[in-house]
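User: Can you fold this complex?
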Amino acid sequence: MSETQPQACDLLIEAGFVVPVEPHGVVLEDHAVAVSDGEIVSVAPVAEARRRFRPARVVARPEGALIPGLVNAHTHNPMTLLRGIADDLPLKVWLQQHIWPIEGAVIGPDFVADGVALAIAEMLRGGTTCCSENYFFPDVQAAVYKRHGFRALVGLPVIDFPTAWAKSDDEYFDRAGEVHDAWHDDGLIATAFAPHAPYTVNDANFERIRLLSDQLDVPVHLHLHETAQEVQQSIEQHGQRPIARLDRLGLIDERLIAVHMTQLTEAEIRLCAERGVSVVHCPESNLKLASGFCPACALERAGVNLALGTDGCASNNDLDMFGETRTAALLAKAVAHDAAALDAFAALRAATLGGARALGFGDRIGSIEPGKQADLACVDLSALETQPLHHVVSQLVYATGRHQVSDVWIAGKPKLQQRELVDMDMAGLVANAKQWRKRIAAIRTS
Amino acid sequence: MSETQPQACDLLIEAGFVVPVEPHGVVLEDHAVAVSDGEIVSVAPVAEARRRFRPARVVARPEGALIPGLVNAHTHNPMTLLRGIADDLPLKVWLQQHIWPIEGAVIGPDFVADGVALAIAEMLRGGTTCCSENYFFPDVQAAVYKRHGFRALVGLPVIDFPTAWAKSDDEYFDRAGEVHDAWHDDGLIATAFAPHAPYTVNDANFERIRLLSDQLDVPVHLHLHETAQEVQQSIEQHGQRPIARLDRLGLIDERLIAVHMTQLTEAEIRLCAERGVSVVHCPESNLKLASGFCPACALERAGVNLALGTDGCASNNDLDMFGETRTAALLAKAVAHDAAALDAFAALRAATLGGARALGFGDRIGSIEPGKQADLACVDLSALETQPLHHVVSQLVYATGRHQVSDVWIAGKPKLQQRELVDMDMAGLVANAKQWRKRIAAIRTS
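Assistant: Here's the predicted assembly.
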């Protein structure tokens, strides 16, 4: 070994700890990750990596833990501009008297572009490198994610009534097709169908989605079994619980990204496991809207692929995947009546590889393995708040704040360096958010 | 007014927003707080305050929200040195195979002093200015809190078996009396009896505590109805639920600081309200140990004084009162099946004035009112993560990270200035924590 010539690489990240996520349950001390052409080429002890590689750039973080970039598997990022606009209200009042009227007045390409840009900055500063987006104007979203080099699965909305995005069923599908075609071979951006929810999409539209998602080979991203009322309403209207109805329509399969899932029978959990459905658990949104408790531990133990999402900022009110992962790990124990439920390693896996698999990106991201894209986050564990460091992954899940994220890379490109955004103008983003506050305040008082 | 001479004061804090907590539900824009001799002397619009006062020092935070310092109403701060040492385990395994053996090997004045110092730094950096401490060696704790100018209610432990602190019932009470006498007229430190729990303290000791707490006029700080097992065991052993047993012993009154309270009947909630019991809700600890759900909203609506605590770092794993307040506000909604439960203002009140009242400090701290001690925290809301700023208190509770705390004062003395600890050596604290990690790792492998 020692006689071979060192191999050139673009970047060598030397970290106090590497948590690869795959294999599961492992913390590698003093390891380095070599990156070339946006891909991870090696994970090895620092001393060995220094012999084997001739990197163009070295980043040394001796007190840092390198983890896969976090995957926010369910969000509505344009709504970041509505953060905290109407809290502590019953769901109906919140939607009908606040969110919908405001959205009605502001929605459009500008609102979507500005909200997504603000969200990207927030996500990067918190170690998130990929998200599954669910909102109107996916064409605008995709362009903004691409411009900032952020990885995203962009949802193509389908809903039974006219909106600013489309006026008819045909228009929803036509526009969906256009956005899919524009991005289907992109390295960072992919698309999914995003029927809003069982109570806002009719059977014919679900059937059309099933056909097209098969044909185009894209996932289906759907709010499902979010509340008891949703289930009850479906029984009244369709004579079936939503999962049974979707099964009849052929949608309960490995393409399905089922979001929320707070109302599940044991049979439904088994069905999801058998069919390879991914469940996106959004614990903070479920708590805040009093929707119910997703049985995260039971799902995980049944073999269901579990992912985590923050939901939108109007119902959370942040895009903090560290906070969401902590809440998921804590809540799972209380819901399962078992302090060993969803342990720190399992929670971190849900926030990374689980999300990647849900989005159909499992072969590309979600773990630190050679051949995968270098979507990485480095967390500074030297802070007083994560000392003493008895257990790296416990500290990451139960004690770390997102502001401890020091560096972020997407496909090997630096996006955050020592807490500084590399290619975004933070002051400009904040100034723009303040403009939106004024504009929305004017709408509300008019 | 304009002709009167300006009045001298020590400090004028000008803030973009002042959230006084009392009166409830109020946000004062562009207000200033004047401080003299450690006390708040005025809360007034900035322009008016500039006319009325001639301050020795001015601190201007135009994008900051000034709130009362947070009160952590239940913690075991020496255990900060055990942060993350054993997570994701059933309670019995956690205590018997991990926490107790490690404590047995390390407990003593050094461990207590070093753990408390680390905790004080963490609390200050997170906007907490007062805590209710519950651990052994209260003499050491009190001295460390006093040295660092931190406000604390120090628990005087009573437990039915010998520990490093005391070997017999009499020794527990003798030492309690000594610590109480040493601190009973201090401006920052006060004491409370801290019987460990109903299942570890016998009737005779509870009776002695009742007599002495009346005589000395000090609160009683007690883990109570933490788990269903505790309640069941009490029924088997005493023929009564713990609250009923304590009522028989005369302890259900306004002196009682009842911690956890996850198992409550409606009659017990009413009893607590009638008797003026304060309940300390520790949501993250309850979730992590799968103890159950405290009915925080029902307690608050019944008129019970609600406080919040982080519990110790071995079961949380941080002293983050911003995180705890957010979790309390979120969880209360799911538990009450009501998205309007424990709103942001109510949650912030529990984290400040509720805690102050529970500890018997309600006339001194917990709100920003003239005559109260100047225990204050300023939160920088200009960060991207709290923009746009549609609602100050929603942002504080649902979106703010504790690292956004810019400044902290206790009794008017600056403790944190622009994120820097004023009189603590952070590097030294971290280095010391690392030494403890090594020492504890050596114990575990020996």
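Chain B is about 40% helix and 25% strand. The mean pLDDT of chain B is 97.
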